[in-house]
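Sample intake sheet
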Amino acid sequence: MDRLTSLEVFSRVVETGGFSAAARKLNMSTTMVSNHVQALEDRLGVRLLQRTTRKVNLTEIGRAYYDRCIQILADIEQADDIASELQSVPRGTLRIHVATHMVPFVAPVVAKLLSIYPELKIDLRMGEADIDLIEEGYDVALRMTAPPDSSLIVRSLATWRHVLCCSHDYLDRHGRVQKLDELTAHNCARHLNYPFGDDWRFFDRKGMPASVRISGSFITNSGEALRKVALEGAAVCLMAGFLVQDDLEGGHLVRLLPEYRPVEMSMNAVYPHRHHLSAKVRTFIDMLVHHSAEQQKLINPYS
């Protein structure tokens, strides 16, 4: 029999003064109540209760055992209350791993969380490498592409597209790109996490898929490094629109082949469990979803 249940049954027998009264209190049969108490006594090898036809009385050992039982049950109830409270109000430490160029997007949400929930602490780490959420102890990761691990839960926050671009200096030295297949002859810098590798994918004006196999002298896992390479005129780049929006509007970079739309990507929150999410994770994700809806045009300015 379940030992914890037996402790509770034994305590109720003592408190109510009999097996029948305890059975009514616990909504179980008198026989089952008796069986639980007997199981405890058999396990301990002692008699806890003196039974008569009218009532039950604690033995000396039973009294000492009862005193410890009620303390154990009270501790368990307190632990349950703490767990429930942690589940209802964000508190404790929320560990987040964020793709580097998502930090400016996430920072306002983190600041708001900290201001609203004073009992919450946030441990925010950034990087481009794939991480093991469970092994490394993260509650949630924010990524620009879906993770390869299908066992993780993926919540889409916003959609975005790359922009094909380069500097005026690059065009002056290498000539304007007129057709998609001409990219094969250009130095194309690539982000390591681009999901299709060296195969850059687009849709044409008719909505038909189109692609080109590229090559180049620079590959990186840093969006900012890719942007710098483009600004310095070293290569043609395919980059997130929100990273280069100001450069394009300021004339520092030039958008190439606008008739070709890069495939749509998803900005995602990734976490290990769907059920019984802690309040800190659930609240953070809900706030991210709301923030993403407000910022969608900034995230995908070239949609």
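Comment: The domain at 161-265 is CATH 3.40.190.290 (D-Maltodextrin-Binding Protein; domain 2). The chain has three domains: 3-84, 92-157+266-299, 161-265.
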